[in-house]
Specification:
Layout (H helix, E strand, L loop, with lengths): L17 E5 L7 H13 L3 E4 L16 H13 L3 E6 L6 H4 L5 H4 L6 E4 L4 H11 L3 E3 L17 H12 L6 E2 L5 E4 L2 E10 H6 L12 E8 L3 H13 L8 E8 L4 H12 L6 E3 L12 E3 L2 E5 L4 E4 L6
Parallel strand pairs: 1-2, 1-3, 3-4, 4-5, 8-9, 9-10, 10-11
Antiparallel strand pairs: 5-12, 6-14, 7-11, 8-13, 13-14
Length: 314
């Protein structure tokens, strides 16, 4: 399998590998975070926590100061004993750490796995543009991705995460029980994107590389249809979608009536004239499949599938 478009593929995980769980965004509930780290350990991993992962929180919505959150992320990335860096949760704050990271040092080490979603979209975009590394948009400890508080993780979510991390060649195809194709067709490109609100917030920033030639992945949570419209319109007016090969969307959890969301997506995306597939199983819903960003894939609306042409990890 060939590597994708010049991005470096990190090594897959093996039993006993050490992974670091950090909080680059909002604070995690300590009890829940520790419980979900035990879930990661059940996969055969040696889990360590970033120095500030358990707080104390700053200003109620940040896990620690910008400098401390950046320190934990950078320290884990630079540590040769760490095979993967896992974001504990989203919320808000990842964009604030970007200016505090020493990208020159981080670019000088071998690539490793970055796993996270939601607010971690800011990190995915920056790691792609600055470090040229494939990343994983997937479930995080201390979030519903690992199951509701006090309940076991969703079986399909955890199984797919395990397969992606340890046997990535067996996690190439993505679909759902009810995919929809508002704009039919087939296209090939490099996966990019993430959570819509974070992509819109990054418009005009250094890490907001345009989606030309890409399969754009979009999802979000808690955004009303008119706000989804506003964010898509912002990205369209900024030229971010120009030259995109296709669009695939995941869950729109608590985003209002599904029919209204579907109508907004069709209204804003159909004029691109590229294949659009909606309803795939990634995002904030359950199951939450782990989708690689920065790998070549093929979108087929007739089959209702997004299929990677190469494994995300080597």
């Amino acid at each position: 399998m060939r590597p994708a478009a010049g991005l470096h593929r990190p090594p897959r995980l093996r039993t006993g590998d050490r992974v670091a769980v950090v909080c680059p965004s909002g604070p995690a509930d300590p009890a829940r975070l520790l419980a979900d780290c035990a879930v990661l350990r059940s996969l055969g991993l040696d889990v360590v926590l970033g120095e500030h992962a358990l707080g104390p929180a700053r200003s109620g919505y940040l896990a620690a100061t910008d400098q401390d959150r950046a320190h934990d992320l950078e320290d884990a990335w630079l540590d040769p004993e760490i095979a993967a860096v896992v974001c504990a949760r989203g919320g808000y704050g990842s964009a604030r750490v970007l200016e505090h990271l020493r990208w020159d040092l981080m670019a000088g080490v071998a690539p490793k796995i970055l796993l996270g979603s939601s607010d971690a979209t800011s990190l995915h975009r920056a790691f792609a543009t600055r470090l040229r590394v494939v990343t994983l948009f997937g479930p995080m400890p201390a979030t519903a991705g690992f199951g509701p508080a006090g309940e076991p993780p969703d079986e399909r979510t955890l199984a797919h995460l395990r397969t992606t991390l340890f046997s990535p060649e067996d996690a190439l195809a993505f679909t759902s029980a009810h995919p929809s194709a508002p704009t039919p067709g087939r296209a090939r490109g490099i996966t990019t994107g993430g959570t819509l609100s974070l992509l819109a917030a990054a418009a005009g920033c250094a890490e907001a590389a345009p989606a030309a030639g890409a399969i754009v992945l979009l999802e979000d949570t808690g955004e009303e249809p008119y706000r989804i419209d506003r964010m898509l319109t912002q990205l369209l007016r900024a030229g971010w979608f120009a030259g995109a090969a296709s669009v695939a969307t995941g869950s729109w959890t608590e985003c209002g009536p599904p029919g209204e969301v579907a109508a907004v997506l069709h209204d804003r995306l159909a004029p691109l004239g590229v294949p659009v597939l909606t309803g795939l199983d990634f995002g904030h819903g359950q199951p939450q499949l782990t989708v690689p960003l920065g790998v070549e894939a093929e979108l087929d609306t007739e089959a209702g599938t997004l299929t990677l042409t190469s494994a995300a990890l080597r």
